[in-house]
Each structure stands twice: as C-alpha cells, then as structure tokens.
Amino acid sequence: MVSPLAGTLTKQRIDVEKLRALFWQPDGEIAPVKFGTSGHRGQLGRGFAAAHALAIAQAVARIHLEDGVKGPVLCGGDTRLMSQTVAQLCAEVLAGNGLSVILPDMPLPTPVFSFEIINGRASACLNGTASHNPPQDMGLKYNPSHGGPAGSELTGRIEKYANEYLKNPAQIKRLPLAEARQKGLVKTADLITPYVSALGRMVDFAAIKKAGLKAAIHPLGGSSLPFYRAIKEKYGLDNMHIVNETLDPTFYFIPIDHDGKIRMDPSSVYPMKPLIDLVKNGEYDFAGASDPDADRFGCATKEGGLIPPNHALCVVANYLIKTRHPQEGMLIGRTLGTTALLDRIAQDAGYGIDEVNVGFKYFVDGIVKGRYILAGEESAGMSMSGWTPEKDGILAVCLLLEIASKCGDIAKLYDNLTQKYGKPYYTRVDVPTDEALKKKVQSFKKEDLKDLTVVAGEKVLNVRDTDGIKVYLQSSWFLVRPSGTENILKFYAETFISQEHLQKIIEEGRKYFGV
C-alpha cells in the first residue's frame, strides 16, 4: 500500500514521561478489557493502563485456580516502553494468588513464549506487547497450555473476569516482587539457549554458512536482537550481519510508515527502506527483519526489493513440499485474506488447503496435531507443524535465508512459481469507517448475497460469512471484514487475470457493500 503522503509527513517523537504517567494515571475513564485476535491492546493511558494489566493478570490467576492449571506462568514482554513493567505487575498478581512465575530479565519474543509452553517449562504465558503497532500503543496477550493464542471461549472468560476487577480493584491480590522472589514464587531462566538450539532442527544453518550469502538482519529495535546474536554465534554465521542493534522504546530511528506514524512493520516498504537500500545497492544479497515481538517477518533481496508476505509464503511452501517430505495428508494452512496461489501449489503437489478465519489462533489445533507443512497469513505471520503454534518471525527469516542460500533470490523463485501456476494480482485497501458501518458489514450473511451473481464479469461461485464476507469468483476472490482493533474495514481482493480486472473487482465489490 503506497501512500503519496509518505515522504512529506513529519516524524513525531513520543513523549516518554507523559506516557509513563498516563499508564499509571489515565486522563479519563479507561476502556474495558477487550481481546482482539490474541490480546487486549490500546494506546497507553485510557486504552491500556496499569489497571488493565493488573485486572487481566488477576483474571488469568482466577482461571488457573478454577481450572486446576499447574505449572509456572511465563511473564514477559518485548522492548516497548512499558512492557517490562507490565510483566512485573503480572508477576506480582500471579504470585499474590500463590502461582509460580518465570520472569525473564530480558525482553522476550512472542514465539519463545510459545516454545517454552510446548516444551513443558511453562503452563501458560502473559506477554506484554502491541506487536508492530506504534510505540505509544501497548497490549497484553495470553497463551494457554497449547502454546498458541487463546481461543474465543477462553478470552471471553478473561474479558468477563478482568472487567469485574476493573470495577473492583480491591479484589486484586498482589505480592511485591522482592517478596515473591524471596519466597521462590518468581524465578528467572535461560530462555535463549533452548530456543536457538531447537531452531537448528528446523533450519539448515550449515547450508547457510557454506553458501556464504551476505545477509543483513534488522531486529527493528525488538526482542529478537539477542536471539539473532546467539544464532550467529552458535552456528558460526560470519555471513550474517546484524546491521542495527538500536534499542529505543520511542523507536524514533525507524522511518515513518505510509500514514506518518512510526510503525515497526517488516512488511511495509517505509520502515524497511534502510534494509531495502542495503540489498538494492549490492552491499548485501539478502535482508531479513522481525517486528518488536518477533512474530512477523520481512525480507528483501537484490532482484526483488521488499518481498510481499504472500510471495514469501508461496516460496516457503513450495520449498518445504520439495525438501521436507511431509507426511501424506498434510495441508497448507492459510487465512481468508491470504493468496490463492498457495492453493495451486498445494493442489499440484497433492496437498490440501485449510482456509481459516483471520487470526493465528485458528491454526493452533492443526499445528499441534501435525497437520500443516506450513501455516501462514498475509500479514507476515507463519509457523509449521513440529514448531510453535504461534507466529515466528525469527524462524521465517532464517528459513528464507536458507532458501536463498540453496535456491537463489526469493523474488526469482516467486516469479518461477507464477510462470508455472499463473500470476496473481493482489491488494488490500483499508477503508476508514465508523461503528455503524462495521456492524452493518458484520451482520451480512451468505443468504443476503443471493442477488450477487456476477462481479467484474466473473460468476460468483461461493460466499463465506464466517469472518466478514468472502466472495469466490472463477479466477478471483474478494473479502470485506471489519478490523477488530481499529475503525477501518479491510477490503482484500485477488485475481489471476490482470491488474485492470483487480481494479474492477475493487470498484464493484466496494460499491455493492457500500464501502
């Protein structure tokens, strides 16, 4: 999504002290706890305050006690302004309820939380992050015993209990951190070594080392930094260069995104420009990045510049099918808004497609049961069976570097796939809206579209209404769904015909839905 405004907008540095103060004492009534695809998120102050962290932690403690969940809860966060404070508050509440806690002394990537749970060292986690969102935002995610994002039933319980505690904060139990440590309820642990060692099962680091492809890695000021350092050291990757090790909770060193906001998004050309330049000028062959909590990935190459997530997922899927010899009956999992080129790759190889609603939580069961050779979403998240049921940007970057080392430039590999299976034209348009229109779109059901038989000259083959409305055409599709966290409608479209046809789909689809 290219904006003509980008480059003319002025970057604004966040006021750290003001936001710290608002976290402790918001300047008005705070928002109720509301979980999106995996957690509660909002701007520091009314949107996310200390009261939210305390209430959510007490809700989680209550659920663990009610359900008899045993084992320590891993509390941590990324490199955001209040992430470590949020983790400490959660630890105090959990300890105050008699639960044991692992509290790392460093920022922690989202996939590492999941990794610790599935390997039995933690029973669940509370993770302070707002992913790639602007630095003034904050959030808190909960992953239960399966290691992936919590499902709707569980997050509904957390919301219900947490909102009770927002109204009755005196019911929240806390034990000061020093006392909790003294009693042995709060401990730390080495969380780098197990993850980095296990990653060697998933990625051929020997091939990366042998090829010597010069790679630039950018953690985007995030929690992946010590993990990339450890990967480089353990596997002897002298060809891997961490090109920016800045840690700054204002993230002021990140170029502004298309709308003038600082957004640490590894799939956007604006914050990724410094990395793109490094490969474009020939200084590096490959560049990879993760967002602050390392659950999203981005990569750039000499031939292709920034590689769209859809393109990367197709290249990874094709590579895994050809090299990892998956078990019979395995699937490629993709979300509703992710490219249908994956369907063609899967069909040709004799594998199925599992199309799920938007949100990585819908992949959890399939990953845990070993069903997916790859699970991915267009917003730059991926994992696979045999690994974590949570998005892993570190895995994705390393796997893409392996592919580039063995097979060549990612952009060229994608072009080869389009020559074989057809070239898709894809876009996502974010339409500003209000609650009324969002509710209207949410209310649409499949039967409401009986009169929609042709769009942009193609017959309507099917309609799905499980998450917004997706309309399937003969060689195309489009999807309109409300954002769970912003006042926008997301309009996705893809066609294998032409760019002009894509524009017709957008125009006719938006007109039909009044967006």
Characterise the protein shown here.
- The protein is an alpha/beta fold.
- Helix content is 36%, strand content 20%.
- It contains 17 helices and 21 strands.
- The strands form four sheets. The protein has a six-stranded mixed β-sheet with strand order 1-5-4-2-3-6, with helices on both faces. Strands 16-21-20-19-18-17 form a six-stranded antiparallel β-sheet. It has a five-stranded mixed β-sheet with strand order 8-7-9-10-11.
- Helix 2 (50-67) packs across helix 5 and helix 8 (205-211) crosses helix 14 (393-407).
- It is globular.
- It starts with 15 loop residues before the first helix and ends with a helix.
Summarize the structure.
The chain has 515 residues and is α/β, with parallel strands linked by helices.
The major sheet is characterized as: 6 strands, mixed
Q: Which sequence of strands runs across the widest sheet?
A: 1-5-4-2-3-6
Task: Specify the oligomeric state.
Answer: single chain
Please, what is the average pLDDT? 94
Report the structural category. Answer: alpha/beta
CATH class of the largest domain: Alpha Beta
CATH architecture of the largest domain: 3-Layer(aba) Sandwich
Give the full name of the CATH homologous superfamily of the largest domain. Alpha-D-Glucose-1,6-Bisphosphate, subunit A, domain 3
Q: Which regions are unreliable across 5 or more consecutive residues at pLDDT < 50?
A: 1-7
CATH topology of the largest domain: Alpha-D-Glucose-1,6-Bisphosphate, Chain A, domain 3
Task: Report, as a whole number of angstroms, the end-to-end distance.
Answer: 18 Å
State the helicity in percent bands. 25-40%
Radius of gyration: 22 Å
How many β-strand runs? Answer: 21
Number of domains: 3
Q: If helices are DSSP runs of H or I spanning 4 or more residues, what is the number of helices?
A: 17
- Give the amount of beta strand, in percent: 15-25%
Shape: globular
